[in-house]
Amino acid sequence: MPVIAVDKPLHLxxxxxxxxxxxxxxxKRVGHTGTLDPLATGVLVLAVEDSTKVVQFMEADSKDYLxxxxxxxxxxxxxxxxxxxxxxxxxxxxxxxxxxxxxxxTGPQKQIxxxxxxxxxxxxxxxxxxxxxxxLDLPARNVVIHSLExxxxxxxxxxxxxxxxxxxxxxxxxxxxxxxxxALGEFPTLLLRARVGSGTYLRSLARDMGAALxxxxxxxxxxxxxxxxxxxADAVQLxxxxxxxxxxxLAALDFPHxxxxxxxxxxxxxxxxxxxxxxxxxxxxxxxxxxxxxxxDGERLKVVRAWA
Length: 308
What we know:
- The protein has 308 residues and is an alpha+beta fold.
- The chain is 16% helix and 35% strand.
- It has six helices and 20 strands.
- Strand 8 (120-121) and strand 9 form a beta hairpin.
């Protein structure tokens, strides 16, 4: 314990943040619920010591982002790491045209991951093959993009807003100001607010949106503003990790709760399936303490993980 939301700085890997948390908390038992690329910032949820056992129930949490997508310029990494490998003139784009295009990228869909990613095929990491000049045949993955909202079209990423009101993550005069990667040039840039399911690559979305417009494109900035119940507005800075209180295992799990009596708690710990009408995933508590995470089918509870 506990579970802590950290504001990951620019240029650090998620593993870098985990290593700093291990030193700050004086433990090797630190995990996270979903990586952020080095050029992305924002919410990285860490689980410390015994809380690592709840990570498996948080990895599927939906995530919110602010994304800057620059059109007319492509890169091998699909982000601002570069270098530029393709450019094109960008015609005048109307906001209505962009919003219409966004509609085809919402809902369940197939998405091909970036070549510069940690995905393994045949025991090979895609990024390692890409850095050596090769390319893997990466199969498309099932992802869900819950919503995409256009916040503006700007002449360049340098001209796009970087300060936002945390209450709704709209551009504002005061609020949180974000540092984006160094721009690769001045290219027309879309600013989006996105809510996506687990496993979605915003870099791939930038590539695919550009292709839908007949243009190369890359992700020129990315801030993760929410993971599950954790908002960036409440995330701690790296230097505050040592003293951060975070949330308990029970508070960290964003599932409905079932209050159990001693008999049900005992049966769940024994792996039995007591009858219960709830449908879906729940946490079961006895006396306010976590007993089990279960799946209910409307007839009985199936134990997913139990804690004595």
